Amino acid sequence: MKSTVNKIVILGGGTSGWMAAAILAKSISRAHITLVESEQIGTIGVGESTIPSIHFFNDLLGIRSTEFAKLTAGSFKLGIQFENWKLPGEKYFHGFGSTGAGMWAAGFHEYWKRGVELGISKPFGTYNLEGMAAKAGKFAHVQGGLNFAYHLDAALYAKRLKAEAQRHGVIRKEGKVSQVHTHEDNDFISHLELENGTRVDGDFFIDCSGFRGLLINETLKTPFVDWSHWLPMNRAIPLQTSITAPPPPFTRSIAHHAGWQWRIPLQQRMGNGIVYCNQYMSDDEALNKLQSDVEGEVLTEPRVIKFVTGHREKLWNKNCVALGLAGGFIEPLESTALHLVQQGIMQLIKYFPAYGVNDLEVAQYNDYMTTDYQDIRDFIVLHYCQTQREDSPFWRYCREMPLPDSLQNRIALFAQTGRFVQRKDEIFSDSWLQVMIGQGLIPQRHHPLADELSEDALAEFLESIETDIRKKVNTLPSHQAYLQQYCQSES
Ligand SMILES: Cc1cc2nc3c(=O)[nH]c(=O)nc-3n(C[C@H](O)[C@H](O)[C@H](O)COP(=O)(O)OP(=O)(O)OC[C@H]3O[C@@H](n4cnc5c(N)ncnc54)[C@H](O)[C@@H]3O)c2cc1C
What we know:
This protein folds into three domains: 7-48 and 153-226 and 308-375, FAD/NAD(P)-binding domain (3-Layer(bba) Sandwich); 92-146 and 385-475, no CATH class; 235-306, no CATH class. Helices cover 36% and strands 19% of the residues. The protein has 15 helices and 21 strands. It has a seven-stranded mixed β-sheet. It has a six-stranded mixed β-sheet with strand order 7-2-1-11-20-19. The two termini are 46 Å apart. The structure holds flavin-adenine dinucleotide (FAD). The site of flavin-adenine dinucleotide (FAD) has 38 residues, from helix 1, strand 2, strand 13 and helix 9.
């Protein structure tokens, strides 16, 4: 291929395609970007819950937080409420932000654990500001305050990204790709051929074509790393309904006998969906369950989405990077897909092949991205394997399945010693503690530093954190009032 990269072709106009187009066009002015999409094929039309890393992306695009909630008809998300995951009828909260306050050598959970032994600790979530604000239905932007993400309307988000991308010179071509051509000498992709006869040449290609992976998979034959044995979910049915109550500032994840259901509240509608494994639940059963569980008027036709959890062995292969569903999917449980798209774009900018594709840079990119995928995979598997449910074949499988070594080690270390370790760049940190403890994994020991406090001092310490959180939550307005005042959608 040529030694310089100027012409970039993005295949796909879903969220990942337009996210890539908007940021690349804004960041790398020498790039001439063409985005090809097909209205006939359409987009997946889901992906409406996010994690706080989205702020970094919005900052790059210059979108303020209240503006973002307004333009996506969105709401604020302080975390996820997990219901029926540990046992039917029990729930816990994964709040963004850290829980309690630790010392440099001992985490808060070590003090909390000693408090459990003494009978003076409240549930772990009591000491998490975001979780307590979410439970109270409150939200505001406060100095040094709440960690949050968003629930968003994916179509409105794509519209905004598209406008931003086109403002920075991205050319959009409508049409269905009928053939992908490669260079004879090195199998690099040379151009796309559309059904209407249009030819789209590029130096570098970004595959955002969805699950099919037209470039990374069908053209370059990049192998897929299949994680179904750890993450057996392989079907989802989304369904939108009208909203029947003020939107709470959190996503609900409600486990059922063969998977789980989501509830993602937007300003004017509720996103619902059921996720399941077809080995344990039929499509008909899933649809019936979803339809009988939703509230409000049904606004969309249900459809079954099939997927396989895992990722392409190489997210960057030859002159092609795969983003979004074309690159991989770890199921929607912790809303990490858009985060991975964002990571893929940021790393591509970091290793941008301005002077041609360099194998060493490609290896760095792939190493970074696959590590990110694996960390997130472990975190998601944790929710399934750490259950105490035994009421169905699905949950019994989850309890007994062999785990990835990385996860097995992390769980064992925590269970036996109370120590929690994480990689420097890992996206989830305190979240691990909240989910481990929420799922009922209480360590056998705690750090000796926690014994340095007398029982009274420990009680006072725990009480002071709880009181501080209660005071902060009391000062916040309701989430609904905040949305109405600052973020009311015009759509
Ligand atoms: C059930 C489910 C729930 C999810 N929930 C979340 C969530 O809560 N949070 C989150 O972050 N993520 C979530 N995701 C993931 C999220 O939906 C996707 O990461 C996101 O929408 C990006 O999708 P995409 O752009 O990669 O693919 P798509 O939206 O499928 O877009 C593919 C694009 O490629 C184009 N295309 C394909 N083939 C051709 C062709 N031959 N010619 C021309 N164009 C073509 C299509 O027209 C389309 O524009 C969820 C996914 C699923 C399946």
